[in-house]
């Protein structure tokens, strides 16, 4: 079991090129993150390549046992991991935040370890016989983001290892220590060379990872523009890809709802992790008949949710993780205000403060083609658009090039399901938004990426299907 101090000491750079890590809530210096280069990446890939045959040869049961021991190790050091995550990423310890994320790492690791994937008999008709097997790909390259750095890393690492691959992961540059710590804890029980990490810039280390002919699969969670560059960089090697890219999720509220009953779920659908979630609710379309009441009830909930320094136990919303993201949210809200939209709550940040705190913000009576609606804000500012005709709301929800998630809010489940079928999104939730389960496949439509993670489909995505016939 690690303490915060021992864990930080284990992952803080002791020399070489480094990046100073500051708490986004306080500006306090946490430590120095190592920044490595392409030489270190190539060495890590070679290590992973050398370790892969023996790891695959262990067999499915033994690899699953190792993953369950890795989950045990995560749980044993959970509080230290959560504190480091809170201080580096900014998210509070409590609520659906740092402790929740570390707990999810253990849950998703166990799910990847324990999900059955038996050999499937495709044809057995007396004359023909064929089986479908799933074999290791080889070395998986993983590139994880800064918003849920530990949990999304596990989504990439755990299924890849279960299926007999080895992994080289590049963490986001602004949450390097968190992923280094997670990998260090897992490597206390995993065989040497199976899980490798190389922190460094996306422009050099990330680019080289996607171009390497020794990488059989790339898993990436991040923006659509970066995803497109990965597609181009990996094309020469025909590298397999799972891409979970940008979202700008729409929610449609029907006129039959009870505004007070749905307000809290609407809030957390939009503002979990202070809005820094790919599948968060980022534009809300509300029928005119209940519009004012929904805005009012949502504002009551939002005003009561405490925001502040993550390691203070009472807070459940934190700062934005970095200044660049703060500036994006600030720009979009200011443009909405200038257009005449009505700010119901928030919208007035302290731009001179040390921490990157942007207040919880609700923007009503906004044009459906305002930039705050069309661009993914990725922060605590929700535009609420009034509609009168359902066809109009569906058209607006579908008109963007992204389609990660969507939601329908109604007291009539059958009607909600009919509307869900019309929405162009990888997942459509009914009367909730953004909830994920380790057995339910998750991924995007349109330019929100391709490939699925979690459950059986997630295991298949990090393996090579092979038919044995005869």
Can you tell me about this structure?
The protein has two domains: 4-245 and 448-469, Aldehyde Dehydrogenase, Chain A, domain 1 (3-Layer(aba) Sandwich), CATH 3.40.605; 249-430, Aldehyde Dehydrogenase, Chain A, domain 2. The model has no long low-confidence stretch (mean pLDDT 97). α4 (78-89) runs antiparallel to α7 (176-186). The chain is of the alpha/beta class and 470 residues long. β1 and β2 (29-34) form a beta hairpin. The chain has helices at residues 4-11, 38-57, 60-76, 78-89, 98-114, 149-162, 176-186, 202-211, 224-234, 259-271, 291-303, 323-338, 371-374, 390-398, 413-420, 455-461, and strands at residues 18-22, 29-34, 120-124, 129-136, 139-143, 166-170, 195-197, 217-221, 240-244, 249-253, 281-287, 342-345, 361-364, 381-387, 402-403, 405-409, 427-430, 445-446, 449-450, 463-469. The radius of gyration is 23 Å and the shape is globular. The termini are far apart. It holds the Pfam family Aldedh. InterPro entries: Ald_DH/histidinol_DH, Ald_DH_C, Ald_DH_CS_CYS, Ald_DH_CS_GLU, Ald_DH_N, Aldehyde_DH_dom, LUC3-like. It comes from Leucobacter iarius.
The number of helical segments is 16
| Order of neighbouring strands in the sheet with most strands | 12-13-14-11-10-16-17
Binned, the helix content reads: 40-55%
- Level-1 CATH class name of the largest domain: Alpha Beta
How many domain regions?
2
* Biggest sheet statistics: 7 strands, mixed
Distance from first to last alpha carbon: 51 Å
Number of separate strands:
20
The CATH topology of the largest domain is Aldehyde Dehydrogenase, Chain A, domain 1
**Which outline best applies?**
globular
Roughly how many Å is the radius of gyration? 23 Å
Active site: 244
Domain Aldehyde dehydrogenase: 14-467
Family: Belongs to the aldehyde dehydrogenase family.
Keywords: Oxidoreductase
